[in-house]
Amino acid sequence: MTEISIEGKLGHELGSTWKLKVRNFVELFNAIEANTNKLRKYLDRHRKEYWAIFVDNERVDASSFLHANIKNKKIKIIPILAGAAATLAAAIVGAMGV
Length: 98
Fold this sequence. Notes:
Blueprint: E1 2-6, H1 8-14, E2 17-20, H2 25-36, H3 39-45, E3 50-55, E4 58-59, E5 74-80, H4 86-96
């Protein structure tokens, strides 16, 4: 199982800890949306928020993370100030078809 920790307002809205049987971030975000019906709405309402995503304590590359193997790994999603992570936020939204 992949362990997910979500901090900040996003974690408060969706749940701060998850254990999911997923292989990549596309599956992860779709699974959270399927279980909460809140992720797409949250991302739509909070377009100016940004997050850093870590896999086993290493920050992911915003340009190529969506299909990276995360099976049985520890994921941490934390809010950050705007900047370089804008590409990461756009990739999440794009992966979910928001």
